[in-house]
């Protein structure tokens, strides 16, 4: 029995915790580049899923500095260490010639060492085949939907295979994995509406979630309640936020959650909404508070059906908790 120790950012549903002390030889940690703390670790094995332009305030607002930090992180590996990296990610592709440790690449693109094929999704589950250049292939089922989740499952599977863990154990773990709180979490169905809760607050994350929900619920309209997180992030990624928020059928936009930052005159939810409407959105509105958003949800959204996506990393989670409480009360009636 492996029984690893783990330290994770989100709450793993099957353990109701983000950390556990195990009796096995492995310690698995979710490293954090946002505050450079990942450079304090001394890993034996690493997985890098992507490198994106976030948290640049801690890198002198220079993407090049973030890239250099990741190269330093790779050098933290011992000379016989192993890096598992997503070969589909454009920044990882760019930096790959500078990697100084043995690297195995994975992804959907055929140039990777491990290639994802035959991907398909059914409601909130996925199936795919993992193929490598030695001609070996493995059929896997994941109890989550979305290409981003399949990529993450592939990364962990490749590392497990390299560590000699049996294919049967890998297949069983993926099929039984119940997910992480607030990571495209299905809360239930309230009236006619599917309730989904998601922590993502960067355009890349939000886009992945919307695309996964389109695959899982192809006939349903998606309503998103979104709370931008940090004035600096909203300013720096303004155009990308506009583009990704146009992907939903209806948008309820909350005020920006400061996360301790001082307000910036040049950015606000009002300005974000204005640009979204100018780009063609005809079904977007601003909610001045969580309470106002809940009133909108209860007065119209729940009766319309479809998918309601609660999206963001601030106190928007309070909305999810209120709706979850209503789900429980309905279940008792």
Automatic annotation (TrEMBL):
UniProt domain Mur ligase C-terminal: residue ranges: 182-314
Matches recorded under Gene3D superfamilies: Mur ligase, C-terminal domain, Mur-like, catalytic domain
Transmembrane segments: none
Cross-referenced SUPFAM superfamilies: MurD-like peptide ligases, catalytic domain, MurD-like peptide ligases, peptide-binding domain
Domain Mur ligase central: 24-159
Gene Ontology terms for molecular function: ATP binding; UDP-N-acetylmuramate-L-alanine ligase activity
Family matches, as NCBIfam families: murC
Protein name in the entry: UDP-N-acetylmuramate--L-alanine ligase
Organism name: marine metagenome
